[in-house]
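hey can u check if this looks right to u? its 243 residues, i copy pasted from the old doc so theres a chance i mangled smth
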Amino acid sequence: MPGIMRQWSDKAMEILGLIPARGESKGIPHKNLKLLCGKPLIAYTIEQARKSECLTRLVVSTDDEHIADIAEQYGAQVPFIRPKELALDNTLSIDVVLHAIEWLNENEGYSPDIIMLLQPTSPFRSARDIDNAVAVYAERRPLSLVSICIADDNPYWMMSIEGGVLTPLMGHIDHTRRQDIPKAYKLNGAIYIASPEVLCERRTFFTEYTIPYIMPRERSLDIDDMLDFHIAEYLLKGGIVQC
């Protein structure tokens, strides 16, 4: 996507792709290295990121030496090993991002213009998705961008139980056809974009001016447990997604 980053300034923008990959996982042990159709899960994200025409650097943040070795084998940089206290079950993604920003600045004097967080649990996000998301971000100049997809279950059809009685979650429903209700979207976990300044100030990718990048459902699988993993295998083996 030539010239895309010259929309903001006369110099090319420095865009860091950051992949967070801790060693342990509750849902699937050693999930980031689990073989998906013969290839470590994290490899899918690294390979597509390396095909991107926009990313100028690709870094993996991990606490695990084995993940670091595999990441480097597939072409990512691992300039540091993340502290164990930032690789716990309750560690927030933003704290991992802020640690990477601080470490790279203090140890290398490196400060990118834009950071794109790429979670390895979204293996089907493509290089085209990465570049298109950057194009949307560059054109609209928001505070941040987050990828989404159509929600599997629309909240207008959801119910709560109050006093043993079904109650529409969104209040009274007048719509009888699926086509008549508003579209609902969900975060798919694949792409998050913001500047280091926004992230350091807001400590979140979600602001009053966060715009969407809409992805198709088949490329929006977020692997959390073994059912998701089996679905991913089915999509790959059936040729429904190409990686």
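Residues 115 and 151 are 26 Å apart (CA to CA).
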